[in-house]
Structure formats: structure tokens, C-alpha cells
Amino acid sequence: MKVLSSAANKLVASGVKEQELTKMFSEKNMLMAKNWYDGLLSVSSAVRDYRRVRNIFEKQTQIISQYSSAIEVLRQSPYITPTQLSDMTTIYGKMLAESSTTISDLQTIVSPAMLKMTDAERMRFIDQLDRKITDQAGLLNYYTSRNLMMMRTAKENAQDLQSLRSFMTSAR
Predict the structure, then answer these.
(1) CB 21 within 8 A of CB 96
(2) Over 80: is that where the pLDDT of 86 sits?
(3) I want to staple 130 with a disulfide (CB 3.0 to 4.6 A). Which of 9, 52, 107, 168 is the partner?
(4) Dihedral angle of Cα 142, 148, 149, 153, to the nearest 10 degrees
(5) 44: domain range?
């Protein structure tokens, strides 16, 4: 988490607007993780040590990292228009907000206010959250692949046009 936060801080400091979103979600994710771990101490070891709990946080970190990497590549591309980048950033923001909600839900399950839940109920709910964040990570991966493919296609089209112009100029 610290590596992610420092990368986000560095990008924000260099004036990259899209990375402010990464920084915000990274900091929110770290705060939730801290609060969650504090609450987890009052929950049974069966829930505390449940492997899917760790998976959920790892996938959230993966989502933020993938967004950060992809948006930087897309932002630097001369083949992505500002409007396209703005639209992409908006959609990525919605995806990040949704995955952040999943972490909030996990935090709620292990909070002292939810002590009425049995371990089995908590684990079923955690399983649902794990499936949900897995789907979110898959959607983000698909969307990123699609955006990068769109960028590559625009680049190839520009190169083809340049080649055609060069050919036409040399044929005269």
C-alpha cells in the first residue's frame, strides 16, 4: 500500500490530474484497511484468517495499480483525444468507486456493530464480496484491454495514413 501511495503522490505532484483519483482511492483504501484490521481483532480467528479476506484487499490493490498504469499510458498517447481520455477517466472512476464500496462492505462485516452475525454468515458474505471484487477486477481488465486496443488501432491507422501519403508523394 505504501508503494502505491508514494507512486500516486509522485504523479499528483507532477501535475497529472488523472492520478489525483488514484491517490484519493489509494489513501481511502489504506484507511479502510487500517480500520478493518483494527475491527478484525475483535472477530474470531476463523474469520480473521479467512483467505478470501486477504484476496479482497489484494484485488483492490490490483485494481488501483492497473488503473494507475493504464491511465498513464493512455494519457501520454497522442492517439487518444482529450475527450476520449476524459470519458475513460470517468468510467475508471466509477469502477474504482464500486471496488471501494466492496472494501467498505467488508469493513462493515467485521465491525463490532455486526457482532450478531455468526462466523458462517460472515464467511458467506465475504465469499460474495470476493466474487464481486473478482468480477470488478475482470471488468477493469477488459475495459483497460479495450482502451489499449483502441489506442493501438488509432496508432496503426495514423501510421497507415502516413505511409499512404509518403507513397503518394513519391509516386508524383
Answers:
(1) yes
(2) yes
(3) 52
(4) 160
(5) 2-171
Q: Please name the amino acid found at residue 31.
A: L
pLDDT tens across 100-148, in order? 899 889 888 877 666 678 888 889 999 999 999 999 999 999 999 999 9
Residue 46 has phi, psi (to 5 degrees) of: -60, -45
Q: Secondary structure of the chain: what % helix, strand, coil (to 5)?
A: 85, 0, 15
pLDDT of residue 117: 80
pTM, two decimals, is 0.71
Structure-block grid coordinates of residue 158:
495514423
Which stretches of 14-81 are DSSP H helices?
17-40, 45-48, 51-76
| Separation between Cα atoms, residue 143 and residue 91, nearest integer Å | 9
Provide the domain count of the chain.
1
User: Do 31 and 103 meet the contact criterion of CB atoms below 8 Å apart?
Assistant: no
Cell (9 digits) for 57: 484487499
pLDDT at 53: 87
User: Are the beta carbons of 34 and 65 closer than 8 angstroms?
Assistant: no
Rounded to whole angstroms, how far apart are CA atoms 57 and 76?
29
Distance from C-alpha of 172 to C-alpha of 161, rounded to nearest angstrom: 17
